[in-house]
Amino acid sequence: MSKSAPSDQSRINLLDSKDVISNKIKRCKTDSFPGLEFDNPERPECSNLLSIYQLVTGKTKQEVSEECRNMNWGTFKDLLTDALADHLRPIQVRYAEIVSDEAYLNGVLAEGAEKATAIADATLSNAYQAMGFLRR
Q1: What range defines the domain where residue 15 resides?
Q2: Same domain, residue pair 17 and 63
Q3: Is the separation of the CB atoms in 98 and 104 below 8 Å?
């Protein structure tokens, strides 16, 4: 998973559905070694996916190591998909609430425009004064 790669397949987006997450996780590069483990330099993808799982579940590295030690990739990828979907669900629910409230969004935009205008006016006033122009 890479946040800087141009392909949408290279990352899990905050608003990805569980099906999209599953598709992306299933396509992750993995190896054919048995079991899963952290910190093996020959298995960077394994460490990466285990680290993602650790972060979204809040488990310790030791807990994840013990839980996943004897798993195969198919089982683990399903587990990771569920963990990611569960972790992102509150964000997605809140996002849906916000975008459905048009009055709230318009208020936020108006407030932001007001603040930006105040800052821009002060900057423009300083520039006019520095160049010796009179404001109209």
Answers
A1: 8-100
A2: yes
A3: yes
Same domain, 92 and 119: no
CB atoms near residue 105 (< 10 Å): 12
What would the pLDDT profile of 87-102 be if each residue is shown by its tens digit?
A: 999 999 999 999 999 9
CB 72 within 8 A of CB 80: no
Tens digits of per-residue pLDDT, 20-38? 999 999 999 898 888 999 9
Name the residue with tokens 């559905």: 17
| Number of domains forming the structure of the chain | 2
Nearest Cα to Cα of residue 12 among 40, 48, 58: 48
The Cα–Cα gap between 76 and 49 comes to: 9
Domain of 36, CATH number, reads 1.10.240.10
End-to-end CA distance of the chain: 54
Q: Does residue 3 form part of some domain? A: no
